[in-house]
Amino acid sequence: MALTAETESRLYRSLRVAAGAAAHLVALGFPAAVAVLARPGSSLFSWHPLLMALAFSFLMTEALLIFSPETSLLRSFSRKVRVRAHWALQLLALLCALLGLGIITYNKHLNGKGHFVTWHGLTGLLAVLYTGGQCAGGVLLLYPKLMKNWTLAKLKLYHATSGLVGYLLGCASLMLGMCSLWFTTAVTGASWYLAMLCPLVTSLVIMNQVSNAYLYRKRSQH
């Protein structure tokens, strides 16, 4: 028996709500697990994985999910409130990422190790720099008159698209970090694969959210 359009719409919405709920749980659960594993304060290095997990798994994921019509924790608030919360979370994510980058750089300096000589290090550096640029680019949305030849709708779309690239870079850095000797020594077997799934789950949810926003804009133009 074929599903009606209304039933398909409800089913799709239910799946999006379930996926969003899973993303919220993963966004919080992954940094919590990293905190248990790293034991922040036990060494200088211990702060690096926690800060990066907070930046790219928790804060940045929540900053993007704020605009989800199904799973935003602030969906009952005005868009103005959600935009301010998005800004606050993104700035906190950038602060954590910068601190995490500074700590690992100083730690390598103390131990006489090379800087940014691995794919994890290079991707992490690029993700942090990109996040800084993305936050600076977000200022254009506050002052759209600075871009006279661009509509506000187009600026929002490009900001969301470029933000997705930065988010995926952050998730890639997390996944490469889980291939490091420190992580693979502490986490083995099924637990390692489960950990690797965490950035993948949130990435898929965020990509779906951004693609839906793009399709909605295309439909509204016709």
From TrEMBL:
Q: What class of enzyme is it?
A: translocase
Q: Which InterPro entries match?
A: CYB561D1/2, Cyt_b561/ferric_Rdtase_TM
Q: Record's SMART domains?
A: B561
Task: Recall the GO molecular function terms of this protein's record.
Answer: metal ion binding; transmembrane ascorbate ferrireductase activity; transmembrane monodehydroascorbate reductase activity
Tell me where in or outside the cell this protein is found. Answer: Membrane
A single GO cellular-component term on record: membrane
Q: Which Pfam families match?
A: Cytochrom_B561
Keyword terms of this UniProt record: Electron transport, Heme, Iron, Membrane, Metal-binding, Transmembrane, Transmembrane helix, Transport
Q: What is its main location?
A: membrane
**EC number(s) recorded for this UniProt protein:** 7.2.1.3
Q: How does it sit in the membrane?
A: Multi-pass membrane protein
Q: Where does the Cytochrome b561 domain lie? A: 14-217
Q: Which cofactors? A: heme b
Q: Where are the transmembrane segments?
A: 17-38, 44-67, 87-106, 118-143, 164-184, 190-210
Name the record gives this protein:
ascorbate ferrireductase (transmembrane)
Species this protein is from: Nicator chloris
| Name of the gene encoding the protein in the UniProt record | Cyb561d2
